[in-house]
Design brief:
Layout lengths: L13 E4 L4 E7 L27 E5 L2 H8 L9 E3 L1 H4 L2 E8 L3 E6 L2 H5 L4 H4 L7 H13 L4 E5 L7 E6 H4 L3 E3 L5 E5 L4 H9 L3 E3 L3
Parallel strand pairs: 4-11, 6-7
Antiparallel strand pairs: 1-6, 2-5, 3-8, 5-9, 5-10, 7-8
């Protein structure tokens, strides 16, 4: 697998994420649902880059994609076990986009336009993140608010990474919605039901 450099000039298809669109994200309890990560933690597919570091926030089109991209990211496709340490400090929040956002499209014919396939950029293993992050950096330099792509873990649904220094005011948090996966009465039952059909056992101790 070779992850190529993004083309120069970088001229991707535009995916417009309209005001009013709902998004879902799984995040640590220490952050609000619409907080960007300022650069803390391990590298990811499209973060981090820049000096100073460009903050990043991941979100998904659906609840299932948000769970798959985070809690199930490292669970084998054949199934496995989700330990309490992986979910007990996590929440799922629902956001609403409050203004139109301009996203670089790395999906569908947007990939073909750039001369790459999903398995070269958006569906690689983690070992290639040092290279795939260059594509987010190219989108940032081209003036986009973030990148839209198909979730590797749930490839029927879109995933997004937003550049926090351009989008921190672009989301409204729904205070009536929250899955607290660490609470046996609020969030964990939904997680167990979701994971059971995928052959993933949610351990409770």
């Amino acid at each position: 697998m070779v992850v190529p450099d993004p083309p120069r000039p970088f001229d991707p298809d535009l995916f417009e994420l309209p005001a009013g669109q709902e998004l879902f994200r799984v995040h640590n309890k220490s952050r609000h649902g619409h907080d960007s990560n300022p650069g803390v933690g391990q590298p990811t597919r499209f973060a981090f880059f820049g000096d100073p570091v460009v903050p990043a926030m991941y979100a998904a089109q659906t609840e299932r994609a948000a769970i798959a991209e985070t809690l199930l990211h490292d669970i084998p496709l054949v199934g496995g076990q989700l330990t309490p340490s992986a979910y007990r400090d996590k929440l799922m929040s629902r956001l609403t986009v409050n203004r139109d956002l301009r996203m670089a499209s790395l999906m569908g014919l947007g990939l073909r336009r750039l001369g790459v396939s999903a398995d070269q950029v958006t569906a690689t293993a983690a070992a290639h993140y040092e290279r795939t992050v260059l594509w987010a950096e190219a989108a940032y330099e081209a003036g986009f608010d973030g990148v839209a792509y198909m979730s590797r873990q749930c490839n029927s649904d879109r995933a997004y990474v937003f550049f926090g220094d351009r989008t921190d005011d672009a989301f409204d948090l729904d205070p009536s919605y929250r899955w607290n996966f660490g609470d046996p009465l609020d969030g964990r039952p939904q997680l167990i039901t979701f994971c059971n059909v995928l052959g993933v056992e949610v351990l409770v101790r």
